[in-house]
Amino acid sequence: MGKYVTNFRIVHLGCALVAAAALMPSGGASAAPARSTTPASVATPAAALASTPADAVTRWRRQNWPQARGWRQISGVYCFAGGEFGDHDHQLRSKYAPFHEYDVQCYKTTSENRGTERIVVGALDKSGQPSCYSYTPDHYRTFRQIGALRDCAAA
Fold first, then answer.
1. pTM score, two decimals?
2. β-pair partners for 78
3. Residue ranges of E strands in the chain
């Protein structure tokens, strides 16, 4: 077996660092330098805001849970509030309706590719806080509880 040299390229994606490795034969002039293969069209989450569901709850709570659909500029990045969520598959408890959706990730620019992570919250109570909270990592296929917060998902 021959020896190989591994070159690492660090790409900053939000709060995570991803290392892309290119294996090249060691020594000799025939070794080509590694080229970037990151597509330019991929929206990169901004580093200014953390990207966990709990952090998204905190971010949107500070924005007073906007009900209208659209982009919001928050701390120099763009975050999307999706407006009312219909729950057509009846995965959430109807007693908490109406539901609203919010993106977990924020971006440096507005983008059509917003990823798949969302938080869905139930109707706001008299104090302006949601009646329940759920996280979906896969664009509404499954829902998960966010920490100790009341879960919207049907049992």
1. 0.68
2. 73, 107
3. 4-13, 16-25, 70-74, 77-85, 99-103, 118-121, 133-136
